């Protein structure tokens, strides 16, 4: 409970700082951190950070919660960094930070910069095609992410490349008016391979990504034929926690490893 309160206090201070027009963080270098497995890689996980993060930072968070990556001896783990762009909505107020695409203030039906999303999609697609060229098929690749990284994972997994092994999103949702829903409808009406299963995590104490937004998206995707695994915690906040990550990687194991 103390850890939860401390986390909430930290992000509250960041929100206050940003709303006063001060920058909470400086942009990170656009680097990709790759963890090679002990054996020949037969699967890959691409994990996307949240707003203001980086590949190396999210790698540390993931590893500190799930333990040493040696437990995945044939899985390549890839942690890319998004390009730094201005994020106009509250509480960021124009900060330049690393994010997969910028969006307006978070509401259920938010709008976003489609050009930035396209650029990020190309960056992710290059990483995926590198894995395919190295002998890892699309069905053995998982794209997952936290917060805005999870948003990008869902948009990409169902709106761009629809043949990955699985998709994961922690404290994330897509806009209720997203064209992804139309893309899924078109896919389901054609004789195409099944769309990848989806893992979602949400917390009742998340004041940035409201639980009903995630639940609404999850139900809508289930109705459209997506296999959705949704872990909801009453004590969960917007921050990554161990349960959310451990369950995500168990889902990944069952899906692609």
From TrEMBL:
Signal peptide: 1-21
Assigned keywords, A-Z: Hydrolase, Signal
Keyword Glycoprotein in annotation: no
Gene Ontology CC entries for this record: cytoplasm
Enzyme class, UniProt record, top EC level: hydrolase
Coiled-coil stretches noted in the UniProt entry, renumbered to this chain: none
EC number(s) per entry: 3.1.2.22
Pfam families: Abhydrolase_2
Family: Belongs to the AB hydrolase superfamily. AB hydrolase 2 family.
Family annotation (Gene3D superfamilies): alpha/beta hydrolase
Domain Phospholipase/carboxylesterase/thioesterase residues, every copy: 32-185
Organism of this sequence: Nezara viridula
Protein name: palmitoyl-protein hydrolase
MF (Gene Ontology): carboxylic ester hydrolase activity; palmitoyl-(protein) hydrolase activity
